[in-house]
Write a structure and sequence with these properties.
Elements lengths: L9 H26 L2 H10 L13 H12 L4 H15 L2 E7 L6 E4 L16 E2 L4 E4 L2 E7 L1 E6 L3 E10 L4 E5 L7 E9 L3 E7 L2 E7 L7 E7 L7 E6 L4 E12 L6 E3 L6 E2 L5 E2 L30 H6 L28 E3 L6 E2 L3 E6 L3 E2 H5 L1 H7 L1 H8 L2 E8 L4 H9 L11 H10 L5 H7 L3 E6 L14 H4 L11 H14 L25 H12 L12 E5 L5 H16 L4 E6 L11 H11 L2 H4 L2 H25 L6 E10 L8 E7 L4 E2 L10 H11 L25 H10 L7 E9 L8 E5 L4 E6 L4 E5 L2 E4 L9 E8 L10 H5 L1 E5 L8 E4 L4 E2 L12 H7 L7 H21 L11 E8 L1
Parallel strand pairs: 15-18, 17-18, 20-25, 20-26, 21-26, 23-24, 23-25, 36-38
Antiparallel strand pairs: 1-14, 2-8, 3-6, 4-5, 6-7, 7-14, 7-24, 8-13, 9-12, 9-14, 10-11, 10-13, 15-19, 16-28, 22-27, 26-27, 29-34, 29-38, 30-33, 30-35, 31-34, 32-33, 36-37
Length: 905
């Protein structure tokens, strides 16, 4: 009988095939997680402060708007239409600041009668030193500065301008008289209960505040009913409070300002579906950018070209007839994305009243941007913006420093903005305020917000609230303040809906917030120390409000949340939102959703190219942030008047050390030209282009330019003309000198000495030990022997107006000279420059010295300054060693040694 052949059963085959498939899937999964940073995904779970554990982002503002709309379904159709009509009316209004309390110089504080406010409370939040000086004309000794008040929250710190008014004090200011409605808007932070009174012309506004209002920021807007009111008085009758972000607004009913479009523009083509044809205004003479906004007032635009009717004709609305608005045909405010357009003879676009949204993203690989199929799938939001935008592809020259690129937009002269020269930057910015983009936009009625991490503004990175500080957020300083906390809790309890037994019995009552204890004060002290550490180095940027985010794992989601919250309160104003999304690569935390999108984008190639998954997941993460920002301006109904510029640093793969960026420039409703060949554009040119686009004449090629910004308005020039203009630009040089001293004190006493500056004042004196005093603006006294057995590093700065070739006197070349008083104690021994030239070889009484002598003896380049300091220290150590071995040698007298050199900047 032949042997029976063994055959596998059907179930055995299924089990073997299933095991092989499972093994392959496990191998694929292990290979992916070995390259993909799975720890960053799990970090999202650990750091999530929201219910969405997989994606701990704030709920999109557009999603919130849609949720509110779903709630409207419970109302009748007529009520839904009425509310949409209100939203459309609100879109037609703008609150334009025509007077800013912290920019104008005609405000003064008077304390002619002082009343002690009852129950003064301690001010928990940090207050930074002020800049603008308020005074009392009747009391010349009375001077008070404005303050920057920091309000910590759980994810960021808000810094606003403010001034403190105590009981009985008042602030006076003259305000401009303009046609139309005005209102006085400000934020009030109450320190103690009481009453305040505000006189606006012949009308008086008064209000009393109770304990429940203390330690709360209250936003107040008061209509100025007196059309002839030319002054304002804010009186603290019996309370103490900070008044923040105070300004007088002009209520403008032309929120949908028409865009002026030229057929000769280098960037844009007119959108024929949105053009307003007005025979009376065919030839608009608009060569002067300072044309009044009254040109587009409602009463001057004929009825047939009203913005509402133009918007009804927009293709998105699919409405061909210009029917009158009824309750059944009210337009959807979320679909109003474009304003009408006017043809002009000007050579570029002017969009009066438009917001500016400036976003700086992290680096994106050049290969991803070039691959349209992958880019459209992994970054749909960015891809959609690019389709509607002018693209400066790898045309913008930038730095490798993220914070420096952020600051270059604020202060348009990159020669002064390198990260090594913080003190020089402050001096230049405070002196040349006309170069400050923030200041310029505020003059034209823009509300400025900067959203970034603290280092980008030169603040210490610990300025944002730490986890320790948030643990004491909402607690009080004194036991007497428990009553305030108790009343606030009662108010909160009344606002919480109760159901079931909770409506009858309090099953989970809240406890009174515990007061701060002794262990909390070190936390507050440390926090305040971090806040004030670099305040003297922070220039007066001119922003209305900073929102500073801690540089932590959830940096980008917190930026989005801050922008959403800020726009909810400021959507009626013209604003510049300067947003920094760029952060450290290891802090970008793609989620599981981004991972899944990357795998589906790559398909089967993800198995053989797992490194690409992480890169695409990061791009998806960035794109989600961009998309949520765009959704925010759409939800706030301001998309139709918001210009967007996105700066994308490009990560090149050619191995060369060149730093370029791609720029995306979008104006809603305009059709972009795609054939741009600009090269080596700098951020100054982008600044000039953006500001000129919103009607502020800036740019070297603008005839009515009234600003020192060195950029070129790009829309008004061709690439060839741009290169010619750029060649004619004379680079500005810094006229500053940094003075550096390295001191090795002797054990014995030695005589003090002085440095006297010739003319300009000395600023930013820094020393690792207190061995100096600044006697006057141009005189420093040094006590080198006050510290024993330590190396002392000391430096200061001076402005140098003198040119080397025009001076023969050494004091004029150096910008000052050393002096000393006769004394019984010996003088220090000086050594100069990188060549360690001793003072015995130099006479300080030369009648003449050439610039070459100064270069050889005193001057050290900035890149070699730290190296020179180390050489001085090593030389001093060698001299000490030699003298210690030859104590009996009478020719060696142990003295304090001072190394000195200058660094032209």
């Amino acid at each position: 009988m032949p042997p029976r052949s063994s055959r596998l059963s059907k179930w055995s085959i299924y089990i073997i095939i299933s095991s092989l498939i499972l093994l392959c899937l496990i191998m694929i999964f292990l290979s992916i997680i070995s390259f993909y940073p799975i720890q960053s995904v799990t970090a999202n779970f650990n750091n999530a402060h929201f219910s969405r554990l997989i994606a701990p982002w704030p709920m999109s503002a557009l999603e919130q708007e849609l949720l509110e709309r779903r709630k409207l379904r419970r109302y009748a159709k007529a009520e839904q239409m009425r509310r949409m009509e209100k939203q459309l009316q609100r879109m037609e209004n703008l609150n334009i600041p025509i007077y800013d309390l912290f920019l104008d110089a005609n405000a003064e504080i008077s304390n002619s009668r002082y009343i002690t406010a009852p129950d003064d409370t301690s001010f928990l939040w940090p207050v930074l030193p002020g800049r603008k000086v308020f005074y009392n004309p009747n009391n010349p000794n009375f001077i008070r500065k404005s303050s920057s008040v920091i309000f910590p929250s759980y994810h960021w710190s808000s810094i606003s301008e403010g001034v403190l008014l105590l009981g009985g004090e008042e602030i006076k200011a003259t305000i401009p008289v303009v046609k139309g409605r005005r209102s006085f808007s400000f934020n009030l932070f109450l320190l103690s209960p009481g009453s305040i009174r505000i006189n606006l012309g012949q009308y008086v506004w008064a209000k009393s505040f109770t304990d429940d209002d203390v330690q709360k920021r209250i936003k107040i807007s008061i209509p100025i009913n007196d059309s002839t009111a030319a002054s304002i008085r804010i009186m603290s009758v019996s309370s103490s409070f900070y008044i923040l972000n105070a300004n007088v607004n002009h209520i403008d009913h032309t929120g949908r300002s028409p865009i002026r479009v030229s057929n000769s523009s280098q960037f844009w083509m007119p959108n024929k579906s949105l053009i307003i044809t007005n025979p009376k205004k065919e030839n608009i003479n608009s060569n002067d950018d300072n044309n009044d906004n009254d040109e587009f007032d409602d009463d001057k635009i004929p009825d047939e070209i009203k913005p509402e009717e133009v918007l009804q004709n927009h293709p998105q609305n699919n409405i061909k007839s210009q029917a009158k608005k009824t309750e059944e045909t009210v337009q959807d405010p979320l679909k109003q994305s474009s304003n009408p357009q006017l043809i002009t003879n000007d050579s570029y676009t002017t969009a009066f009243g438009y917001n500016i949204l400036y976003i700086q993203t992290p680096k994106i690989s050049e290969n991803i941007l070039k691959n349209k199929k992958i880019f459209n799938h992994i970054a749909p939001s960015l891809s959609s913006i690019m389709d509607q935008s002018v693209i400066f592809s790898k045309s913008i020259s930038i730095s490798d420093n993220t914070s420096e690129n952020f600051r270059k937009f604020i202060f348009s002269d990159h020669n002064f903005l390198n990260s090594e020269n913080i003190f020089i930057s402050k001096e230049e910015i405070n002196e040349y305020k006309s170069k400050n983009i923030y200041q310029e936009l505020r003059k034209y009625g823009y509300n400025i917000v900067g959203i970034s991490h603290p280092e980008s503004y030169y603040f210490n990175k610990n300025i944002s609230d730490s986890s320790e500080f948030t643990s004491i957020y909402g607690r009080w300083l004194e036991r007497n303040d428990w009553t305030f906390a108790k009343k606030n809790i009662q108010i909160d309890d009344r606002n919480i809906p109760a159901s079931g037994l909770d409506a009858i019995f309090k099953t989970n009552p809240k406890g009174i917030a515990a007061p701060l204890t002794a262990k909390d004060f070190p936390i507050i002290s440390k926090y305040l120390g971090n806040v004030a550490q670099n305040i003297d180095n922070v220039p007066d940027w001119g922003t209305n409000e900073f929102l500073l985010i801690n540089n932590q794992d959830l940096y980008i989601p917190r930026v989005i949340e801050a922008f959403q919250n800020w726009t909810s309160e400021n959507q009626q104003s013209r604003f510049l939102a300067h947003i920094l999304l760029d952060t450290e690569t290891n802090l970008i935390r793609p989620t599981l959703k981004d991972l899944g999108k990357s795998i589906t984008t790559l398909g089967f190639s993800s198995i053989v190219n797992p490194l690409k998954i992480d890169e695409l997941a990061t791009v998806s993460y960035i794109d989600r942030a961009i998309g949520q920002i765009i959704d925010t301006i759409k939800a706030r109904k301001i998309e139709h008047r918001t210009i967007i510029f996105v700066l994308i640093p490009v990560e090149k793969n050619d191995g060369k050390k060149s730093f370029l960026a791609t720029g995306i420039f979008k104006i809603p409703g305009l059709i972009p030209k795609m054939s741009l060949n600009f090269e080596n554009i700098n951020i100054n040119d982008i600044s000039a282009t953006l500001l000129s686009t919103v009607g502020i004449p800036i740019g070297r090629n603008i005839l009515s330019n009234n600003n020192d910004i060195t950029g070129i308005m790009l829309e008004k020039t061709t690439p060839n003309e741009y290169q010619a203009l750029k060649q004619n630009m004379i680079p500005r040089k810094n006229n500053y000198i940094k003075y550096t001293m390295s001191i090795k004190p002797d054990e014995n006493n030695c005589s003090p000495f002085y440095w006297t500056a010739n003319s300009d004042s000395i600023f930013s004196v820094h020393s690792n030990f207190p061995i100096y005093q600044l006697i006057s603006n141009n005189l420093i006294e040094f006590f080198p022997c006050s510290i024993k057995n330590k190396y002392i590093n000391l430096s200061w700065y001076q402005k140098n107006e003198n040119k080397l070739e025009n001076n023969s006197n050494i004091e004029g070349i150096l910008g000052g000279s050393f002096q000393y008083k006769r004394s019984l104690t010996p003088l220090p021994h000086f050594y100069f420059g990188k060549n360690f030239v001793p003072s015995d070889s130099i006479s300080f009484y030369f009648d003449s010295m050439t610039s070459n002598n100064v270069e050889e003896i005193f001057s050290v380049d900035e890149k070699n300054s730290k190296k020179c300091q180390k050489q001085l220290k090593d030389s001093f150590s060698a001299i000490d060693t030699f003298e210690s071995k030859n104590i009996e040698d009478p020719s060696l007298s142990k003295k304090t040694k001072v190394g000195f050199f200058i660094t032209p900047l």
